[in-house]
Amino acid sequence: MPTFRYRAATSSGAVRAGALEAATHGDVLQELRSLGLMPIEAVAMSGPGRGAAAPRSDGRSRRAVIDAIGELAVLLEAGLTLERALAVCVDNVAHPGARTGFEKLRARVKEGAPLSRAMSESPGLFPPMASAMGEAGEADGRLGGALARLAESLDRAETLRQTVISSLIYPAVLIVVATSVILVMLLIVVPQFEGLFAGARGKLPFATRMVMAASEAVRARGWLAILVFVAAGMGLRAWLTRPSARLAFDRLVLKAPWLGAVITNAQTAAFARTLGSLVEGGVPLPIALGIARKSVSNSFMALAIGRIAADLKEGAGLTGPLAASGVFPPMALGFLRTGEETAQLGLMLRRLADVLDRGVRSTIQRMIGIMTPAITVIMGAAVATVIASIMSAILGFNDLALSP
Q: Are residues 202 and 336 located together in one domain of the fold?
């Protein structure tokens, strides 16, 4: 989907700039109007960074960008000019992709472009909230503080992401090892005894016959099972590219027992952290909602947030529309209500994100704590079943040979 760089006016007359992804130019204008903005211009970008290819997003590049933004905030707070601070950051960035991105960022700033606009021209390097936070900091003259909040928000999100990935590595490896051991037993070990049992298949114990039948099926039609599995995966992936199918799937996932609650809390935490940082940075709530929606990967939740952003008027409450959507946990609504009543919405949103992050991390650790011994037991039981079935057949033959 192409990216459009836009400039639009708020109801108060302030001009805002940023980047949006949309299918057509008309879709960009429609989304800007739904956010309460008056479009001034929307120009399609050939790619981030004025035609450059989008940098590959991975853990190391994201971490490098977060560290560079934090360093930039510290340098600006220390009194350095923006151009000089960017030069220092470029010298200290070790990741090649991030370094190239910050070099282009510095070049655009030297040309006279505001930092927020330069960030919006590199959507592959900076998330949408970066441009909004930068623009808010430029508007109130506290760019360093805005970038510090941005770096903190991105750092917490990346830390949670890496924690989840690291926690899932061991169960994934265990599943691969368990599957490999069982396949080796069926493909190599069991066939060694087929010649021994060739003349007495009917007299073998039931468990032995089942194991040998499974071995024959895997050797004869295993390739077919792999093809069916791959075709099903590709078909599911193609089906999920349809917006209506993805919406139905994401809605179904949210209703799944246990897993649905974890996904809901994780998505709410990402949304709350982004929205809280934007609100504290001075971004108007309707615009902040539209940007924070992009931090939610579940399309059903994102659609609900988009509808709220389109209907929300300046000065209107947020808790009521979010409660009516029915997709957010009760805890989130309580935090939001408290934030609105105490005029500390940004602070309460960040605290909500912290609480949900801890809950998600704790739940995932419990799930892994259950999965690890369960996989070990299943693997041991499967291997023991194969060995026991073969040994029982061998011992049965010995009994027949020794009987008068």
A: yes
Give a yes or no: residue 101 inside a domain: no
> DSSP string spanning 314-355?
TT--SHHHHHHHT-S-HHHHHHHHHHHHTT-HHHHHHHHHHH
pLDDT, tens digit (0-9, with 9 covering 90-100), for 108-149 = 888 888 888 888 777 778 877 787 778 778 877 788 888 888
Residues 206, 347, single domain; the answer is yes
| Amino acid sitting at position 377 | V
| pLDDT greater at residue 76 or residue 58 | 76
Say if 197 falls within a structural domain: yes
Domain around 6: 1-45
For the chain, what is the domain count? 2
Pairing of strands 3-9, 15-21: antiparallel
pLDDT digits 0-9 by tens, 17-57: 666 767 677 777 777 777 767 777 777 754 444 444 444 55
- Distance between CA 75 and CA 85 in Å, rounded? 6
DSSP-assigned letters across all residues of 188-228: IIGGGGTTTTGGGGGGS-HHHHHHHHHHHHHHHHHHHHHHH
Start-to-end C-alpha separation, the chain: 81
- Cβ count within 10 A of residue 45: 17
- Surface-to-core class of residue 315, CB atoms within 10 Å of its CB (0-12 exposed, 13-18 middle, 19+ buried): exposed
pTM for the full predicted model = 0.69
